[in-house]
Structures are given as C-alpha cells and as structure tokens.
Specification:
Elements lengths: L2 H15 L13 H9 L6 H9 L6 H11 L2 H14 L44 H5 L1
C-alpha cells in the first residue's frame, strides 16, 4: 500500500478504537499501539511527525492526537535516540527537550552518539583519582 492509503486506514482504525480511550488496549502503552505506530512509520522525530500528520485526512482528530501522544512518549523517544546513535546517521530531533540517557550527566554539546571517545572511563563521582595514574603511564 502507498503511504497515503496506510494513513487513511490507520485513521479509520484509530477513529473507532480511540473514541473513548487513549490507548488501543487498556490504560497503558501496548504492543498494539507500537504496531500501529510502526505502520505510521514510527514518527517520533519532529519532521517525521509533521509528515505523518500531513497524510491524515482532515477529520482524523483521534489519529492526530494519538500520533502526537505516541511521538512524545519518553520510552519511544529514548528508543529513537538510541537507534539513531547506533546507526551513526544523524542526531535525533524532537519537539521538546529530551532528558539525557544517563541521569546526572549533561548532554555533550554537539556530540553524536557513538562517536565520542574519552581518555578515561567515567567514574560515578566524576572525579579523577589515584587509580587513573596507571592508565596515564
């Protein structure tokens, strides 16, 4: 099927399924939500989400709301960030600010995941100690 046909079918499915709920099954993200999000092209990044929404019919309010909700889900954004880092293709770009993958660490300005090399392994405290002297010799 062409992308426009897939999006029309997706909007029809979501219109009926999301009339009274947020998720397709139950009250939390499920495999059914992920499967339909994959049909839409897994549009977690801002430009992909805009492209996916432009393919929806004008009356597909539920589908548009659901796509926005799925794209802003923290688990899906982290998965996208990790996948983009593994492929080394480009940096993930989201609408909002993303938390760093490691808590307590600031994002490295201009860094591309998978391409950063450090001399010493990071310590939980962040400080160099006498044990690092062996590595420096």
């Amino acid at each position: 099927l062409e992308t426009s046909q897939k999006m029309i079918a997706l909007s029809m499915t979501l219109h009926h399924a999301l009339a009274t709920s947020t998720y397709l099954v139950g009250h939390a993200l499920s495999l059914a939500d992920l499967a339909l999000f994959a049909v839409a092209g897994f549009p977690t990044q801002a430009k992909d989400l805009a492209a996916a929404k432009s393919q929806l019919p004008d009356h597909a309010v539920a589908a548009s709301r659901w796509l926005s909700m799925m794209a802003s889900h923290p688990a899906l954004q982290e998965a996208t960030q990790l996948c983009v880092g593994v492929t080394n293709s480009f940096e993930a770009v989201f609408d909002g600010e993303m938390e760093p993958l490691v808590s307590g660490m600031n994002a490295l300005e201009g860094a591309v995941a998978g391409r950063v090399v450090t001399r010493f392994p990071p310590e939980p405290s962040g400080y160099l100690h006498i044990g690092h002297s062996k590595a420096a010799l």
